Amino acid sequence: MSTLTALARAEAVAAGVAQRIATVRHLHVSARPLVFVPLGMAGEANAPLAALVGTDPEAPRLLLVPQPRNRDQRFGFAAELAEVVLPYLDSFRKDTEEVPVNRGSEIRHRYVDAPQVFVPNPAGIRFTRLLGRSTRFRRTDGDHPVPPSVPLLGRWLTFLADRAEYPGSCLLLAMTEALTLHWATGQSPVEDNHLAALLAWIDPPAGLTGAEAAARAENPLHFPPAGPLTDPTFDGRVLAPLIAAYAQAGDDPGRRARASEALADALRGQLAPTWELMWRGLALLRDLPPGARVAQRWAQDRDAFTDFASDVDAGAAPQSARDGAVAAARRLHRLERALQSYEVQRAYDDPLVMADHRLTGEAFVGEVIVADANRIDASGRRRVLRPRITVRTTDPVQVAPGAVVYSPDRPQQKTLVVTVTARPDGTGTDVVLELTSGLGRSLTPAPGSVPEVGQRLCYTTLSDTFVPSGEFPSPEETPWTHGGPPTAYEEAAEPTADEEWE
Predict the structure, then answer these.
(1) 320 within domain boundaries
(2) Are 381 and 306 in a shared domain?
(3) Are the CB atoms for 43 and 236 separated by under 8 Å?
(4) Fewest beta carbons within 10 Å, which of 58, 101, 216, 418?
(5) Residue at 116 is within a domain
(6) Do 375 and 275 fall into the same domain?
(7) How far, in Å, are 203, 336, 347, 350, 426 from residue 26 at the CA level?
């Protein structure tokens, strides 16, 4: 937790309402997201019990598993979920756009939009990952066959869950994480995983403080847990008798229909409050203006969606049960690069995020008091344009002479720190900066390329410049210390239909 977030939490307690910790929205919100609210059977690893899913807040589809321990009903649930999810995914595969690559020498195509799935909390993402893991290897023939849509759904769910690990990706999002990225409440981060309590702090009812509204929201009778696990009291007093009644119905169609209807009504009552909270959270997110670099990250999501859809169409094998050593190292490297880029982009987009870096001395904001726009450096073999400016700041400055800094307003312009001098009267620090790029091609600076006196700017050591990918051996060259070369993919070596659901 950052210093400013901790301060915002304290202010939330004092004010009785959550405090904004972002001036812009740092994630993409689709015009047509798919909301997925799952429930799982307590005591059973990833056994689906029910779910509300859909794109229309007024018309969710209820999926039900009357006997969660029944294998056929579990895969029936997956088949019903596929009837909703797969057409939704396919609806984004109609229109494409041309994207120039290799400096315009080549053209590739990607979809103009991509799907976006919201679940209530991080546990919902884990449920989605395990559901994908449990279904993507299933056979459509032989013992325990499943409809072809089930393994296809599993591959897509696995793809979405994998993308959810990428910082800044918005294909699969947990609502609680999306909201806490922009608001700080007066409760603990663990309590923020309770969607009803979180929204109570952000948007409390009239006449109530956030703490009072959150206390009411924690009553499972009014706001059942947002899943995937149900409330223990509900399990013992309501769910267990209803499941038992369904089992006792046997082959009697009438009794089974009545028992199924009673079970559906009870589970709908557990899911409906969370379903409404999800759309309320989406409305709050949509009210925030998007950050300048959100579209760039969404374009990367659209690239990933396009590439995976192409692999599926080409008949590629399902994602492996586990990565090999080289694949795992490459994935970790990509995640680290994505995290670094995401943190820089958020800071560039949002003064509140940048303020944390100002506190640590990684960034400073000041006013230009001197600007020598036409300064020429003749110390080398040829004369070059090297303007210098002096920025006066009251922020702590931890950068040393010789460091390279960047301004969010001029992200492509490299700037060299020449001197850092504290003022004798203690009123601030004067930083002399030399501009080394983004000036044009002549000895006269391009218009607007040099900051003017009186202009207020932010400079930081954070940079989102291109970093080449790391070098890794090929899978065939995996050293013996890491298991040696992986064996060739064999379908029989992957989980079979006899494997347990979890």
Answers:
(1) no
(2) no
(3) no
(4) 58
(5) yes
(6) no
(7) 20, 19, 10, 9, 37
**Same structural domain for residues 223 and 77?**
yes
151: in domain = yes
Residue with tokens 């304290």: 10
SS3 for 125?
A: helix
Give domain status of residue 162, yes or no: yes
Instruction: Share the mean pLDDT of the chain.
Output: 89
Strand partners, 367: 392, 456
Which of 160, 161, 198, 205 lies closest to 176, judged by CA?
198
Rg (CA), the chain: 28
Domain that holds residue 91: 22-315
Say if strands 106-111 and 456-460 run parallel, antiparallel, or are unpaired: unpaired
Q: What is the pLDDT of residues 380-426, one digit of tens each?
A: 788 899 999 999 999 999 999 999 999 998 888 899 999 999 998 88
Question: Among all chains, which residue has been given the structure tokens 């390279």?
Answer: 404
CA distances from 408 to 87, 99, 361, 365, 391 (A): 41, 26, 16, 11, 15
What pTM value is reported for the model?
0.89
DSSP label of 224: -
Could you give the CA distance from residue 438 to residue 435 in angstroms, rounded to a whole number?
Answer: 8
Based on the fold, state whether residues 293 and 437 are members of the same structural domain. Answer: no
Asked if 123 and 112 touch (Cβ cutoff 8 Å), the reply is no
CA pair distance 277, 184, nearest whole angstrom? 18
CB 106 within 8 A of CB 55: no
How many independent structural domains does the chain possess? 2
